[in-house]
Amino acid sequence: xxxxxxxxxxxxxxxxxxxxxKQQTNISFxxxxxxxxxxxxxxxxxxxxxxxxxxxxxxxxxxxxxxKLGNIYARQGRYEAxxxxxxxxxxxxxxxxxxxxxxxxxxxxxSRQTLQQAEQTLAPDTAELKQIKQxxxxxxxxxxxx
Length: 146
Fold this sequence. Notes:
Keywords: Signal, TPR repeat. It is a single chain. By secondary structure, the protein is mainly α. Helix content is 85%, strand content 0%. It is built from six helices and no strands. The longest helix has 40 residues, at 2-41. The radius of gyration is 25 Å and the shape is elongated.
């Protein structure tokens, strides 16, 4: 009888400890999310990045953290990292229209950057430079909705 009572007590204590750990994890997640959102809103992008990265480690399916990381990287001109984050959002939810839109904008900016680099690198008066300039002009017109 003593053994059954002792085993029951151990199970009860383990269950209580487990519940307490879950509550601490949820509070920790909520607090961390609040800190991340505050840093993001205040444009403290390095702090926000650190917090959102931590959130993705503990909650890899929390797509909002991936989305915010994509935005941070896009603002910093870190297009490859931004693309990976938006693609992660879309892997979690392929119906996320904001992620599709931001992914397209980042890829357009990446294309502009490539075209600008080509214009600065190619020799003047070449057929390729003329094509690059035409493509840049067309891309700019399309982006403006003209």
